[in-house]
Write a structure and sequence with these properties.
0% strand
Length: 72
C-alpha cells in the first residue's frame, strides 16, 4: 500500500479524536502493531479493513482524501 494511505488513515483517526491505544483495542491488536501499521511498516489487510470499518469510510474515500491532502 502507498504510504500516503497510512497517513490519511492516521489523519482521519486523529480528526475524529480517537487515541491510538483506543483504536488498537477496537481492532484487537497491540498499540505497537497499530503504530507500525500507521507508519507503513506493516500492511496487514485485516487491520486495514477493520480500521476502515471503525472510521466508517471506504477505500475510495481514503484515496480521494490522500489526493486532496498530499497532491495539491
Amino acid at each position: 500500500m502507498n504510504k500516503k494511505v497510512f497517513k490519511v488513515l492516521r489523519y482521519e483517526r486523529l480528526r475524529r479524536g480517537i487515541q491510538l491505544s483506543k483504536m488498537a483495542e477496537e481492532i484487537g491488536v497491540t498499540y505497537q502493531t497499530l503504530y507500525n501499521f500507521e507508519c507503513g511498516k506493516s500492511n496487514n489487510l485485516t487491520v486495514f479493513i477493520k480500521y476502515l470499518k471503525i472510521l466508517d469510510v471506504t477505500y475510495d474515500y481514503i484515496v480521494k482524501k490522500g489526493i486532496e491532502l498530499y497532491e495539491n
